[in-house]
């Protein structure tokens, strides 16, 4: 199982994944915190998947969502499930939408990239961050490259060391607001919440 196998795997299992995805919205507290810190409601959802339940929750809160996913079947489901959102079929790596957002979210998607590709995403985050934009990502809690499963199929994951993420955020203009490794209140997810530093005049 390699990083380049991730998108074809999600493309194959998209409908089953959408049907079985946990919709209890255990992510709600973090999503609400993201919106509370964000200066507006323009949200970039990277690795948006089928849009349920996260993008639909954000849409209910009057967010203007741009969903990006590289799996054709996933972005087709996103268009169906979140009809008011903008849907972009694209790989998040090297993304350049020529647009800036109030919040950038990559929930359970960024960690499917290789360590090198994860490092290369931080300039992408910075390029799409508007003034005082919020960035929220989920990662692993230790440096590792485990293989998980989605709809019975193996799928690649990777994580850098926490200090590496903190250093990358700082180097690309983000200040960490909160970091919770294996948050027990969020189904064990490791969550980073950061904000773009003000531009020095």
From TrEMBL:
**UniProt organism field:** Psychromarinibacter sediminicola
- Report if keyword Transport is assigned: no
Record-level GO BP terms: methylation
The yes or no answer to whether the keyword Ribonucleoprotein is present is no
Q: What is this protein called?
A: Methyltransferase domain-containing protein
Keywords in alphabetical order: Methyltransferase, Transferase
- SUPFAM superfamilies for this protein: S-adenosyl-L-methionine-dependent methyltransferases
List each copy of the Methyltransferase domain by range.
43-126
Molecular function (GO) terms listed?
A: methyltransferase activity
């Amino acid at each position: 199982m390699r990083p380049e196998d991730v998108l074809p795997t999600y493309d194959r299992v998209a409908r089953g994944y959408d049907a079985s995805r946990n919709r209890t919205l255990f992510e709600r507290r973090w999503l609400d915190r993201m919106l509370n810190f964000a200066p507006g409601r323009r949200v970039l959802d990277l690795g948006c998947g089928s849009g349920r339940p996260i993008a639909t929750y954000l849409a209910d809160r009057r967010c203007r969502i741009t969903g990006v996913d590289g799996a054709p079947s996933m972005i087709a489901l996103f268009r169906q499930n979140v009809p008011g959102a903008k849907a972009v079929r694209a790989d998040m790596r090297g993304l350049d939408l020529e647009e800036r957002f109030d919040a950038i979210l990559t929930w359970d998607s960024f960690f499917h990239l290789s360590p090198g590709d994860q490092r290369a995403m931080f300039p992408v985050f910075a390029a799409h961050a508007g003034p005082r934009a919020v960035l929220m990502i989920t990662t692993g809690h230790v440096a590792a490259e485990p293989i998980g499963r989605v709809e019975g199929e193996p799928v690649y994951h990777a994580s850098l060391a926490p200090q590496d993420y903190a250093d990358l955020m700082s180097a690309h203009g983000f200040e960490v607001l909160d970091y919770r490794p294996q948050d027990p209140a969020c189904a064990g997810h490791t969550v980073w919440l950061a904000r773009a530093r003000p531009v020095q005049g």
